[in-house]
Amino acid sequence: MADASPPTAPHAPLPRHYADSGQRDRYVRALFDRGAPSYDRINRIFSLGTGARYRRDALRRAGLAPGKRLLDVATGTGLVAREAVAILGSASDVVGLDLSAGMLREARAGLTIPLVQARAEALPLADASVDLVSMGYALRHVPDLVLAFAEFRRVLRPGGRVLLLEIDQPASTLALAALRFYLGRVVPGLSRWVGQGEKDSRMMRYFWDTIDTCVPPEAIEAALARAGFTGIGCEVQLGIFRAYGAVSA
Ligand SMILES: C[S@@+](CC[C@H](N)C(=O)[O-])C[C@H]1O[C@@H](n2cnc3c(N)ncnc32)[C@H](O)[C@@H]1O
């Protein structure tokens, strides 16, 4: 009998970037490895308000406070982890995890937290070992949302929370056209000059293409529910910045 569960990939394969889905993994890793040295600079210039303050406020609203332990999945250069350390006042209570060795190298330059090279969908952490799992702007890159969210739930203590930051397409056609022009054309074009040429332009083009083709917010919330989370909610700012939150029962 066919599996009745809906597919939980965050987006369909992107032939503009890789020939088939079997190559996606290698493509994503190489993309972020190469783009890592320019990531913070590009982010600072084009972040649209998703900067340090936004990340720190989101962590606070998710309940991060001194004494708690956080796992930051897809930490990249550590932009979320850095804000978590500032809130906790302790580098040893934050673990950063990422697929890309290049990103972790950049993170290591500015952070003293434990950094682990691993995948969101196979976390090398013990069951019930953290109070909060955060993931900033990376759910579009995992191969399977339910698989990754189930892993988040496994490592969370009962009552622990997950926080997922994401950019979504705005509902208004005009706003969507403006965002598409900015993130799909302006940012990749200028990243070639602001960053280090074609590889950074490609990274930012991929950034937009995955937003443009991402499953809708309801599918992300449904994946959280299928992974066993409760109390699922989402704060939306300016129609595009989404902070999903949920509780591990
Ligand atoms: C756009 S960056 C986000 C970095 C950071 N969280 C932030 O807020 O800016 C996406 C990151 O996801 C990582 N990534 C992609 N797929 C992953 C996976 N399956 N498991 C863990 N990390 C992954 C990439 O290496 C990259 O560092």
Describe the structure.
The protein has eight helices and seven strands. With 249 residues, it is of the alpha/beta class. A seven-stranded mixed β-sheet has the order 3-2-1-4-5-7-6, sandwiched between helices. α1 crosses α7 and α6 (173-194) packs antiparallel against α7 (198-212). The longest helix has 23 residues, at 24-46. The relative contact order is 0.17. The model has no long low-confidence stretch (mean pLDDT 93). The structure holds S-adenosylmethionine. The site of S-adenosylmethionine (SAM) has 18 residues, from α1 and α3.
Largest sheet: 7 strands, mixed
Poorly predicted regions: none
Which strand order do you get reading across the main beta sheet?
3-2-1-4-5-7-6
- Strand percentage: 15-25%
Number of helices: 8
Shape, please?
globular
Number of domains: 2
**Radius of gyration, CA atoms, in whole angstroms:** 17 Å
The CATH architecture classification of the largest domain is 3-Layer(aba) Sandwich
Short précis:
The protein has 249 residues and is α/β, with parallel strands linked by helices.
